[in-house]
Write a structure and sequence with these properties.
Elements (H helix, E strand, L loop, with lengths): L1 H14 L3 E4 L17 H8 L4 E5 L8 E11 L4 E10 L2 E9 L14
Antiparallel strand pairs: 1-3, 2-3, 3-4, 4-5
Length: 114
């Protein structure tokens, strides 16, 4: 019975995929972006090409915001990820949301994430 359990666990471990998707996100350029001033081309020159582009609207008469999506995933247990959403209104930088579970690692700019 013990040998069967070990065999099954070994087979399951062989089915698990590892790898990465996206690039490590640089957070140091975020401090150089100015709300309602920085253009899309300026943001792209600082952060690179986004992994995706979408939009949102809070409802009512609120304007539609364009959202650029950046991500970095590491497929191993536990899964680690970074995500950056950059918001634009009328073609200008309007803010961002950044999340990372890469505690103790360094971003591409050399900053240690805590």
């Amino acid at each position: 019975m013990k040998a069967l359990v070990i065999l099954l666990l070994t087979m399951l471990a062989g089915c698990m995929s590892t790898g990465t998707t996206g690039s490590l996100i640089r957070v140091d350029p975020l401090s150089r972006m100015e709300v309602n001033v920085s253009s899309k081309s300026q943001v792209q020159s600082l952060l690179g090409e986004p992994n995706g582009i979408g939009g949102s609207r809070l409802g009512g008469e609120s304007p539609t915001q364009e959202i650029w999506f950046y991500h970095h995933l590491i497929f191993e247990l536990p899964v680690k990820q970074e995500m950056l959403l950059v918001f634009f209104e009328n073609g200008r930088y309007h803010g961002h949301f950044w999340f990372s579970s890469l505690v103790g690692m360094q971003d591409a700019g050399g900053l240690t994430l805590r």
